[in-house]
Amino acid sequence: MEIIDQSPAPAWPRAVLFDLLTALLDSWTVWNAAAGSQAQGRAWRAEYLKRTYGCGAYVPYEQLVREAASHVGLPASAPQALDAGWDKLPAWDGARELLRALRPHCRLAVVTNCSERLGRRAADLLEIDWDVVVTSEQAGFYKPDPRPYQLALEQLGVQATDAAFVAGSGYDMFGTSAVGLRTYWHNRVGLALPAGAPVPDAESATLEPALPWLRSFHAATPTRLQANVQLLD
C-alpha cells in the first residue's frame, strides 16, 4: 500500500531578518550584571531605549549608553562593564538551532540598533554565516525608522513581501509594518505591545514556534500554531 505524505509543502520566505540583541541574544542579563542589579539594569535599559527610539538619525550607540547610565544614576564603570562583557552575551534557548534549521532554506540577516563595532561582534556570537548584517550606524538611523529594514532588504535583493522579520521588541512593529514585513515577535520577557503599535503576525515567549510559522510563510492556508504561540489576524 502506497503511503502518501499529505503534510503541506514547505513555503519558506526567501529571507528572514532578525533583531539581534533581544530576539536572539539575552542582552538583559549582561546589562543587569553591568548595572549591579536587575532593577538598575532595567531602568538603564529603558532610558537607553527611549533615547534610541526618540533620536531617529544615528547618534553613536556608545554615547547613548553612557548618557542613559548617567541619567539613571549609574557610575561610568557601568558602561565600561557592559562593553567588557559584550562577548559574553548569551543566546536565547533555541536561537542557534533556529538559525541552523533556516540556513538551507532562507537568506539570513540581522537588523540591529547598535554600532558597527558592537553589532558585528554580537552577530558573530550566533555562529552562523550571515548574508547581511545591518547596524544603525551603517543605516544612519535607529529602528523603528524604516531605513535600517529597507537597507537590509536592498542588500539581500529581496522584496519585503518575500521576507519575514523576527522581532525582540514591540517597537519593531512600527518599522516592519511601514516596510511591509510580516513579523514574529519573540516576546521573551512578556512586554506589553507599545501604544499604537501594529500587532505582529505571531507572538510567543520562545523561538520554538517560529520555525513552523516560517515553514508555512507562503502557504495558501497558513498553519495555525498552538501551544504557547498566539497568532494575530
UniProtKB/TrEMBL annotation:
It holds the Pfam family Hydrolase. InterPro entries: HAD-like_sf, HAD-SF_hydro_IA, HAD_sf, PGP-like_dom2, S-2-haloacid_dehalogenase. GO terms for molecular function: hydrolase activity. SUPFAM superfamilies: HAD-like. Gene3D superfamilies: HAD superfamily/HAD-like (3.40.50.1000), Putative phosphatase, domain 2 (1.10.150.240). The keyword Hydrolase applies. Keywords: Hydrolase. The keyword Hydrolase applies. This is Putative haloacid dehalogenase. It comes from Cupriavidus basilensis. The lineage of its organism: Bacteria, Pseudomonadati, Pseudomonadota, Betaproteobacteria, Burkholderiales.
